[in-house]
Automatic annotation (TrEMBL):
Catalytic activity: Transfers a segment of a (1->4)-alpha-D-glucan to a new position in an acceptor, which may be glucose or a (1->4)-alpha-D-glucan
Protein name: 4-alpha-glucanotransferase
Stated family: Belongs to the disproportionating enzyme family.
Presence of the UniProt keyword Transferase in the record: yes
Swiss-Prot/TrEMBL keywords: Carbohydrate metabolism, Glycosyltransferase, Transferase
Name of the coding gene: malQ
Length: 735
């Protein structure tokens, strides 16, 4: 077949998913082995029935796990007969539809696609373009396919070819059969061949958790004004080119606010906790008594910024929400009204659904699975009635998102105006909270009863359950990837780049069927050509760089594919080793990557050098081998890096001087060809405490550790320009 189209159906996902089933594979005695029919059904839906773990051992997935994953995809494989029936239905499904739901192609490709119609009929096929134009030069090809009997009707298959000069964008494929006036439709998505990261100017930037980076003007939590100030100072005084922040996604605004930025209520919308109250235009129009109240709230919460203990999001949000309610009551100018209307029009039904979820959560709590049954479906009449009965409550949450949109835009503008080549790099979490806004509004395209996680690896030997519902690959294709398109477009709107957390999840995800045992799961394959293609299309339109976090267990071809599409990878010093397990020389690191010494899932470098991560995991019961063995392995790992520094004369006589070792490690990274070099702000100020310990929730204060120095005293933004430790570390990048 000419061209290189990937028709987006679950069949197209299976090619690399599973090796052929057969006897003699791995630990057959430990599981109920899937039957050949179940394996064939699983392959058809992109579900792995076997895989190789982080230690290179072959694992056969149990029948129970495979059946549970298929059930989440709407496929009943609970018995051999039902599995056989499901397979037969799957094989007939493509013959029952006139057009494929979604076709993804790259510019210049000339793919073929099938049109199904009553045998002997003729079809009229055309493409309605995104810009309002139309293309009718869609020729039929000489390609005979035997007709099939489907539901008592003989159905034929006609083959057509899309032209290679279709413009980039989202188009509608149309077909009319015979003289029937009905028009059948599908989606055609034309994506760029690649982004062009080679054109990036090499630069360095901060990597930080915004909520932890506070100032004397912020309300106990780092906010967007703090981010803009940090970016402007770093660009002007230090020559920084970017600031990579944690995901700023929306969290619950009712009840306890989830501390993890990687478990949001919505990825498309942002968290109003990050608003700087005094920067809202209507602040100047508050009545005197209301302004006095806001000032009182500000004084109370600013005192929290001097607190070195765990951050208190709930107290801060309660104060900010009271202030925001007062500001919401101020009548805006006619120009502001027009701007707000334009924002709402742009965001459409997605904004309405999000605001409706938030308003209902204010009444019934944030867990929509516990709401009255009639409110659990966003399209239900009771939900429409609630919205009509509570317009101000819904409007308030729409208004909050507008304020965030404005402050995000101003933050990026200040960063680039100060000289940053990229500005703010946003971070996209893997998924969403199972009881959050997206899980409620996007139920059609998310798998119910399944969690995203990760199988065991060297650092998380019990596996991970991230408690997030995964995308359904089939439902994404059926809907033209609309939810994914909207999400990517929203997150990159006000930034210079986007980091994709666990970008491997756009290729395959670990679906956990038992929350108590994250090891009980398997991989489900996604159509990466579609997901990465849309990501590249939106990034090209916005003019931003894309960084994929490609750490962990990676199939070798995946990194090659990302490089082919112009997506930068991620290189973390502690994980960069050659085939013999030795530290990878800097000249052999990838050029097209973001290179750092550490990551937020490890302690800051000073803590890592002290083995804090091993001690912490031991205290929390997260190790699967004796602590003495773990410490020995960890010490050998660190010693190998210290030896690498000595061999390159980067360490000098600094053995035992933690600050000098941290500087030497950053010099090592700076010697690599990496386009982007990231410096953790925690490393620059000497912080030792880890921000997150995977595999825990409340056992450790994850995502609640304020920025502090080696003595534990809070470090505020105003302290940074005179922090000699910071200046020495940044100086080491160019020494």
């Amino acid at each position: 077949m000419p061209g290189r189209l990937r028709a987006v159906t679950s069949a197209s996902l299976a090619a690399r998913c599973v090796r052929p089933y057969g006897p003699g594979y791995g630990r057959l005695a430990r599981v109920t082995a899937p039957t050949p029919a179940l394996v064939e059904l699983a392959v058809a839906h992109g579900v792995a029935t076997e895989y190789w773990d982080w230690q290179g051992k072959h694992v056969l997935v149990s029948t129970e796990v495979v059946s549970a994953v298929l059930a989440a995809l709407g496929v009943d494989a609970s018995t051999p007969d039902r599995a056989a029936n499901a397979l037969a239905e799957y094989q007939l499904a493509r013959w029952r539809r006139t057009l494929p739901p979604t076709l993804v192609m790259r510019e210049g490709w000339t793919p073929w696609f099938a049109v199904h119609l009553p045998h002997g009929s003729t079809a009229e096929v055309w493409v309605d373009l995104e810009d309002g134009g139309q293309r009718r030069d869609i020729p039929q090809q000489e390609h005979w396919v035997e007709p099939e009997w489907v539901d008592g009707v003989q159905v034929g298959e006609a083959t057509y070819q899309l032209p290679g000069d279709l413009p980039l964008g989202y188009h509608r494929l149309c077909a009319r059969i015979g003289g029937n006036p009905e028009v059948f439709t599908g989606t055609v998505i034309v994506t760029p061949q690649r982004l062009e990261p080679q054109k990036l100017q090499r630069t360095w930037g901060w990597v930080l958790q915004l909520y932890s980076v506070r100032s004397r003007r912020s309300w106990g939590i780092g906010d967007l004004h703090d981010l803009a100030d940090l970016a402007a100072w770093s660009a002007t005084d230090l020559g920084a080119g970017f600031v990579l922040v944690n995901p700023l996604h929306a969290a619950e605004t009712a009840g306890r606010m989830e501390p993890s930025p990687y478990l949001p209520a919505s990825r498309r919308f942002a968290n109003p906790l990050y608003l700087r109250i005094e920067d809202i235009d209507e602040y100047g129009d508050l009545a005197p008594a209301e302004r006095d109240r806001v000032r009182t709230l500000a004084l109370q919460t600013r005192a929290l910024s001097e607190d070195a203990t765990a951050l208190d999001r709930d107290t801060v949000w309660a104060a900010k929400r009271e202030a925001l309610q007062l500001l919401f009551g101020v009548r805006p100018s006619i120009g502001r009204i027009a701007e707000y209307g334009a924002y709402c029009d742009r965001e459409g039904q997605g904004l309405v659904d999000f605001a409706t979820w938030a308003a209902i959560a204010d009444v019934h709590g944030p867990e929509w699975s516990k709401w009255p049954a009639e409110l659990r479906d966003p399209a239900a009449p009771a939900v429409v009635a609630f919205r009509n009965d509570n317009p101000d409550a819904v409007e308030f949450h729409c208004w909050l998102q507008w304020q965030l949109d404005e402050q995000l835009a101003r933050t990026q503008a200040r960063a680039t105006a100060a000289g940053m080549s990229l500005g703010v790099l946003h971070d996209l979490a893997v998924g969403v909270h199972p009881d959050g806004a997206d899980a409620w509004a996007l139920q059609r395209v998310l798998a119910a009863g399944i969690h995203v996680g990760a199988p065991p690896d060297a650092f998380n030997q019990q596996g991970q359950d991230w408690s997030q519902p995964p995308w359904r690959p089939d439902a994404l294709a059926e809907t033209g990837y609309a939810a994914w398109r909207d999400l990517v477009r929203a997150v990159i709107r006000h930034g210079g780049g986007l980091r994709i957390d666990h970008i491997l999840g756009l290729f395959r995800l670990w679906w956990v069927t038992s929350p108590e045992r994250p090891t009980e799961g398997t991989y489900v394959r996604y159509d990466h050509e579609a997901l990465i293609g849309i990501l590249v299309l939106e990034a090209a339109r916005a003019g931003v760089v894309v960084v994929g976090e490609d750490l962990g267990t990676v199939e070798p071809w995946v990194r090659d594919y990302l490089t082919e599409r112009g997506v930068l990878g991620t290189s973390v010093l502690w994980f960069e080793r050659d085939a013999q397990g030795n530290p990878l020389p800097p000249e052999r690191w990838r050029e097209l990557c973001l290179a750092t010494v550490t990551t937020h899932d490890l302690p800051p470098t000073a803590g890592y050098l002290a083995g804090d991560h091993v001690d912490l995991r031991d205290r929390l019961g997260l190790l699967t081998r004796p602590v003495a063995e773990e410490l020995a392995v960890d010490e050998a790992d660190r010693d190998s890096w210290l030896n690498a520094l000595r061999e390159r004369h980067l360490l000098g006589n600094a053995d035992g001087d933690v600050e000098r070792i941290v500087e030497a490690l950053h010099r090592y990274v700076a010697h690599t060809p990496a386009k982007l070099v990231g410096v953790a702000l925690t490393d620059a100020v000497g912080e030792r405490r880890t921000q997150n310990q995977p595999g825990t929730t409340d056992e450790y204060p994850n995502w609640r550790v304020p920025l502090g120095g080696p003595d534990g005293v809070p470090v505020l933004i105003e302290d940074l320009p005179t922090n000699n430790r910071l200046r020495r570390l940044i100086g080491s990048l160019s020494s």
